[in-house]
Structure formats: structure tokens, C-alpha cells
């Protein structure tokens, strides 16, 4: 079976699903903050982007898995052609697969307690997982520096932009939300609004990244999309 990936069609489809997730999340906020429906209500929990094991978290996991799969397809082609950086494409695919698992099983939250106990974190570092995550990102950035600048300008810019959106929101908003949670105001209206921006922008960052990966394949093979034979 042959699957053809089109960068524009993929972008429009994933972006439309993000729009649906945003609308459902806003509906859950209206129920909770406008109509006073308890946070434990089935529909509030099912639709809110902050809560786990629901529709938005499932979509976020699938979007990350999609990015991992696209990167795997590119890396497989790189190995066939014996291209440079083929292992870095594979490593990037594995990194996104880990992010998928993290989104699904909340792995980063399990790192919070030992990091907090070790460093006695609070304030903007109340969500202490951002410290090991930031260190890992710095290391990964150094490893991928030459790789990024070896890419075509359009791909490089899209990778940097999408990465900045995803990482900037994933870590940046956590630094703001941490003190609110520490003060005992988790999921008050201010916190919920921040979550809305954070989760929506994270999804958009991955959506833009998947577009960039497919567009890169189109650039390498003019006139063709990323075609995979299963």
C-alpha cells in the first residue's frame, strides 16, 4: 500500500483538528467557569486541555507520534541513500516518540519530585521538570547545530520556528504557571487561560514541524511528496 504525504494537506488537516480541540476546550471552560460545572464533571474533564487521559491529550500524543513517524520515513530514505546525518534523523524520530510517550503517560511529571527534593525548587521552578528538560535541550541543540545549518534555508527556518514555538511555550508557560500552582490556585481562571495558550501553541508548533518535514522531502525530491511503501 502506498501512502502519499502532502505538506499542505497535512498542515490543513492537523490545523483543523487543533481548531476543534481549541473549541472543545473553550466549551469546557464555559461550563466550568461560566456555568459553575464542577471540574470533575465528565464533559469538563473530557474536553479540557489541562487534564490528562482525554480527547485533547490523545490528539497531542497522536500528533507527536505522527511527527515521529514522518521523521522515521525520512531517516529510512537517508539510510538508503547513505546520506550524511542519517543517524541524527533517526535520533530525532526517537525523541518525538519519547515526547509522545511523555504526553501519554506524563513521564516529565514523575521527574518533578526527585528534582524538587534535590534542588529544593520553588517559584518559577516549582515545576522542576523544566530544569533537566532545559539541560537536555541545550545538549541536543549543540549536537544538532551543524545538522540544522546543513538544511535548506526554508527547512532550517521552519524547524527553528516550530521548535521555538513548541519549546518556548512548553517550558515558558510552565515557568509562569508554577508560582500560581504553588500559591494554591491551580486551575483558577488565570491559570486556565495560560493553559489555553500553552497547549494550543504546543499543538501548533508540532503541526508546523510536520509541515516542515514533509516540505523538506518535497524539496529533496522535486515534484514528489513523501511516499512510503508499506
Characteristics of this structure?
mainly alpha, two-stranded antiparallel ribbon
What does this protein look like?
The chain is mainly α and 230 residues long. 76% of the residues lie in helices and 3% in strands. The protein has helices at 7-34, 42-47, 55-81, 86-105, 107-110, 112-119, 130-143, 145-150, 153-182, 189-220; strands at residues 2-5, 226-229. Strands 1-2 form a two-stranded antiparallel sheet. Helix 1 runs antiparallel to helix 3 and helix 1 packs antiparallel against helix 10 (189-220). It starts with a strand and ends with a strand.
Produce a short descriptive summary:
It is built from ten helices and two strands; from the N terminus they run βααααααααααβ.
Q: Compute the number of structural domains.
A: 1
The helix-and-strand class reads mainly alpha
**In what order do the strands lie side by side in the largest sheet?**
1-2
As a whole number of angstroms, the C-alpha radius of gyration is 19 Å
Distance between the termini: 5 Å
Question: Considering DSSP H and I runs of 4 or more, what fraction of the residues is helical?
Answer: over 70%
- Residue stretches low in confidence (pLDDT < 50, at least 5 long) are none
Q: Tell me about the biggest sheet?
A: 2 strands, antiparallel
Total helical segments = 10
Average predicted local confidence, pLDDT: 92
Residues in β-strands, percent: under 5%
Instruction: Summarize the helix and strand pattern as letters.
Output: EHHHHHHHHHHE
Give the topology, please.
Elements: E1 2-5, H1 7-34, H2 42-47, H3 55-81, H4 86-105, H5 107-110, H6 112-119, H7 130-143, H8 145-150, H9 153-182, H10 189-220, E2 226-229
Antiparallel strand pairs: 1-2
Amino acid at each position: 500500500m502506498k501512502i502519499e504525504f502532502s505538506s499542505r494537506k497535512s498542515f490543513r488537516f492537523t490545523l483543523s483538528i487543533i481548531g476543534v480541540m481549541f473549541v472543545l476546550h473553550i466549551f469546557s471552560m464555559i461550563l466550568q467557569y461560566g456555568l459553575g460545572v464542577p471540574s470533575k464533571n465528565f464533559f469538563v474533564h473530557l474536553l479540557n486541555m489541562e487534564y490528562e487521559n482525554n480527547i485533547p491529550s490523545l490528539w497531542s500524543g497522536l500528533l507527536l507520534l505522527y511527527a515521529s513517524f514522518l521523521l522515521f520515513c525520512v531517516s529510512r530514505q537517508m539510510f538508503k541513500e547513505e546520506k550524511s546525518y542519517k543517524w541524527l534523523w533517526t535520533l530525532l524520530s526517537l525523541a518525538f516518540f519519547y515526547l509522545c510517550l511523555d504526553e501519554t503517560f506524563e513521564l516529565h511529571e514523575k521527574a518533578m519530585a526527585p528534582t524538587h527534593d534535590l534542588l529544593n525548587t520553588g517559584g518559577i521552578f516549582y515545576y522542576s521538570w523544566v530544569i533537566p528538560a532545559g539541560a537536555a535541550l541545550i545538549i541536543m541543540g549543540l549536537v544538532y547545530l551543524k545538522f540544522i545549518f546543513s538544511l535548506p534555508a526554508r527547512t532550517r527556518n521552519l524547524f527553528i520556528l516550530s521548535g521555538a514555538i513548541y519549546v518556548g511555550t512548553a517550558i515558558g508557560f510552565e515557568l509562569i504557571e508554577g508560582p500560581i500552582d504553588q500559591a494554591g490556585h491551580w486551575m483558577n481562571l488565570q491559570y486556565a487561560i495560560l493553559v489555553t495558550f500553552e497547549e494550543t501553541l504546543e499543538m501548533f508548533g508540532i503541526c508546523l514541524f510536520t509541515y516542515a518535514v514533509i516540505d523538506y522531502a518535497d524539496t529533496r525530491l522535486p515534484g514528489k511528496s513523501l511516499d512510503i511503501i508499506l
